[in-house]
C-alpha cells in the first residue's frame, strides 16, 4: 500500500466528514446554541426588568408610606385639635353650670334668709304687741313693768 494513497483517501474521507458535519450536524448545534443564548439573554433582560420594576415598586411603596404617614399625622392633629376644642367647650359649659348653680344657691339662701328675717320681725312685732297689751291691762307700776319686760325677754330667747 502506498502511503500517499492512504493519506489522500483519509484526506478525502476527512473532507467528506467535514462537509457532512457542516451540512447536517453543525446547523442544529448552532441553532440550539443560538436558542440557548437567546433564552439566557431573555432571562437576563427579564431579570433586569424585574429589578427595575422592583425598584419602582419599592419607590411607590415608600411614597405611599410617606403619604399615609402624613395623612395619619394630619388626621391625628385634627383629632387632637377637635378634642381640645371639645374639652374647652366642656370646661366652659361646666364653669357656666357651676356659676349658675352658685347663683341659684346664693339666691335661695338670700330668699331663705329674707323669709327668716320677715318671720322673725313678725314674731317680734306680735310679742311687742302682746307685751304692750299686758302692760296696758295692768296698772302702771314700775316693778310690774320690769317683771313683764323680763318675762318678755325670756320669751324672746
From TrEMBL:
Mode of membrane association: Single-pass membrane protein
Superkingdom, taxonomy of origin: Bacteria
Residue spans crossing the bilayer: 6-26
Residue stretches in coiled coil: 87-122
InterPro entries to which the protein is assigned, alphabetical: ATP_synth_b/b'su_bac/chlpt, ATP_synth_F0_bsu_bac, ATP_synthase_B_chain
Location in or out of the cell: Cell membrane; Endomembrane system
UniProt KW keywords: ATP synthesis, Cell membrane, CF(0), Coiled coil, Hydrogen ion transport, Ion transport, Membrane, Transmembrane, Transmembrane helix, Transport
Stored CDD domains: ATP-synt_Fo_b
Family per record: Belongs to the ATPase B chain family.
Function: F(1)F(0) ATP synthase produces ATP from ADP in the presence of a proton or sodium gradient. F-type ATPases consist of two structural domains, F(1) containing the extramembraneous catalytic core and F(0) containing the membrane proton channel, linked together by a central stalk and a peripheral stalk. During catalysis, ATP synthesis in the catalytic domain of F(1) is coupled via a rotary mechanism of the central stalk subunits to proton translocation. Component of the F(0) channel, it forms part of the peripheral stalk, linking F(1) to F(0). The b'-subunit is a diverged and duplicated form of b found in plants and photosynthetic bacteria.
Assembly: F-type ATPases have 2 components, F(1) - the catalytic core - and F(0) - the membrane proton channel. F(1) has five subunits: alpha(3), beta(3), gamma(1), delta(1), epsilon(1). F(0) has three main subunits: a(1), b(2) and c(10-14). The alpha and beta chains form an alternating ring which encloses part of the gamma chain. F(1) is attached to F(0) by a central stalk formed by the gamma and epsilon chains, while a peripheral stalk is formed by the delta and b chains.
Protein name from the UniProt record: ATP synthase subunit b
Originating gene: atpF
Amino acid at each position: 500500500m502506498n502511503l500517499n494513497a492512504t493519506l489522500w483517501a483519509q484526506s478525502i474521507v476527512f473532507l467528506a466528514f467535514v462537509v457532512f458535519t457542516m451540512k447536517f450536524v453543525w446547523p442544529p448545534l448552532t441553532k440550539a446554541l443560538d436558542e440557548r443564548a437567546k433564552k439566557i439573554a431573555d432571562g437576563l433582560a427579564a431579570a433586569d426588568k424585574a429589578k427595575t420594576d422592583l425598584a419602582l415598586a419599592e419607590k411607590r411603596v415608600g411614597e405611599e408610606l410617606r403619604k399615609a404617614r402624613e395623612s395619619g399625622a394630619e388626621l391625628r392633629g385634627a383629632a387632637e385639635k377637635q378634642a381640645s376644642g371639645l374639652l374647652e367647650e366642656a370646661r366652659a359649659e361646666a364653669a357656666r353650670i357651676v356659676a349658675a348653680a352658685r347663683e341659684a344657691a346664693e339666691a335661695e339662701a338670700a330668699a331663705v334668709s329674707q323669709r327668716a328675717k320677715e318671720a322673725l320681725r313678725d314674731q317680734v312685732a306680735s310679742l311687742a304687741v302682746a307685751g304692750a297689751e299686758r302692760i296696758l291691762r295692768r296698772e302702771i307700776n314700775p316693778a310690774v313693768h320690769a317683771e313683764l319686760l323680763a318675762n318678755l325677754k325670756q320669751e324672746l330667747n
